[in-house]
Amino acid sequence: MEKANLDWSNLPFGYMKTDFHLEYYYKDGKWSEAKVVEKDTIELSMSATSLHYGQEAFEGLKAYEHKDGSVSLFRPEENARRLQKSAEKLIMVAPPEELFLEAVEKIVQLNKRFVPPYGTGAALYIRPLLIGISGMLGVQPSNEYLFLVFASPVGPYFKEGLKPLKFKIEEKMKRAAPGGTGDVKVGGNYAASLRVSRAARAEGFKEVIYTDAETNQYLDESGPANFFAISKDGNSYITPKSETILPSITNKSLMYLAEHDLELTVENRPVKVDEIYDFSEAGCCGTAAVITPIESLSFRDDTIVYTKDGKVGPVSQRLYDRLTGMQVGDVEDKFGWNRKVKLD
Ligand SMILES: Cc1ncc(COP(=O)(O)O)c(C=O)c1O
């Protein structure tokens, strides 16, 4: 099959209609078979719990074309499990892992002409979405759910790629609080972050790094990505641990690569804001953000610069090369993270 005619190397991180999406319905205690749908709209009760009470959770993962033309998903089992955690927190019914895996594989097969060619730096982004669809007025969980999966070819979230960007530490506005939903991937967290991102952009920053909601003394994460840093001596990969951070699959992979491939010490622990003065490199990581180096971090009246001549630091670069090399099949998949999609 011919590839779609797109400017693959200059794709934004944005939605583009592809050929098909998938719908699975949960009703009377069981999931339906996959419904393959061409149009990209859905019909929904105007009183659906997802619309009024935010009963919705989602995932984000990518499929990558390798040099030999094969296509792999990166650790999709992790996304299946995280969706289950998100669903549990909002008292929703999540698709079982096998159904999730079937769906994300099928969506690639159905839209394979939209999988960006090897070497373009782009990927097919897959968005699984779970929403409560029962029409209700009282604040209560839905009885019925729609699990929908669509795909869109994308470039990196921060279009500058590996170019370091300016961030600020945000102490006043919050995306999540202890005991809340910051550790799961639900729409409400992102709704809460929109105004924060907009305010930061108006001040000339790309994004913020939040501090913890309780004490403001610890670093949490960014709006769309986890935060990591490299110690002054270059020997430690440091990333915050907090109950209001979404456990990033990219960060989990980087921690593993840092320890097992780069022989760094991994420090996944509460990270004090004051420690920003002790880092040699800093960055954000996520499926969409990949590794986005932080050029500078502004905190109150101070700005700490982590890069020289606007270039990514050496440890971040090595991590980036390993991770992205593995995802596109150029670096040996030692840990079995790639799941090949059957294509005919
Ligand atoms: C709030 C938040 N943190 C972190 C991440 C990165 O997670 P992952 O690496 O699993 O994509 C994302 C993006 O998915 C996110 O939205």
SSE layout:
Layout: E1 21-27, E2 30-31, E3 35-37, H1 49-53, E4 56-58, E5 61-65, E6 71-74, H2 76-89, H3 97-110, E7 123-132, E8 145-154, E9 165-170, H4 187-202, E10 207-211, E11 219-222, E12 226-231, E13 236-240, H5 249-260, E14 265-269, E15 279-286, E16 290-299, E17 302-305, H6 314-327, E18 338-340
Parallel strand pairs: 9-10, 9-16, 13-14
Antiparallel strand pairs: 1-2, 1-3, 1-8, 4-7, 5-6, 5-7, 6-18, 7-8, 10-11, 12-13, 12-15, 15-16, 16-17
Helix pairs in contact: 2-3
The structure holds pyridoxal-5'-phosphate (PLP).
Residues 60, 221, 224-226, 246, 248-251, 286-288 line the site of pyridoxal-5'-phosphate.
Quick structural gist:
The chain has six helices and 18 strands.
List key phrases describing it:
9-stranded antiparallel beta sheet; 22% helix; D-amino Acid Aminotransferase, Chain A, domain 1; D-amino Acid Aminotransferase, Chain A, domain 2; 18 strands; 2 domains; 9-stranded mixed beta sheet
Characterise this structure:
The protein is α+β, with helices and mostly antiparallel strands. It folds into 2 domains: 8-154, Aminotransferase class 4, branched-chain amino acid transferase, N-terminal domain (D-amino Acid Aminotransferase, Chain A, domain 1), CATH 3.30.470.10; 165-327, D-amino Acid Aminotransferase, Chain A, domain 2 (Alpha-Beta Barrel), CATH 3.20.10. The chain is built from 6 helices and 18 strands. It has helices at residues 49-53, 76-89, 97-110, 187-202, 249-260, 314-327; strands at residues 21-27, 30-31, 35-37, 56-58, 61-65, 71-74, 123-132, 145-154, 165-170, 207-211, 219-222, 226-231, 236-240, 265-269, 279-286, 290-299, 302-305, 338-340. Strands 1, 2, 3, 4, 5, 6, 7, 8 and 18 form a 9-stranded antiparallel β-sheet that branches. Strand 12 (226-231) and strand 13 form a beta hairpin. Helix 2 packs across helix 3 (97-110). The longest helix has 16 residues, at 187-202. It is globular, with a radius of gyration of 20 Å. The chain starts with 20 loop residues before the first strand and ends with a strand. Bound molecules: pyridoxal-5'-phosphate. Residues 60, 221, 224-226, 246, 248-251, 286-288 line the site of pyridoxal-5'-phosphate (PLP).
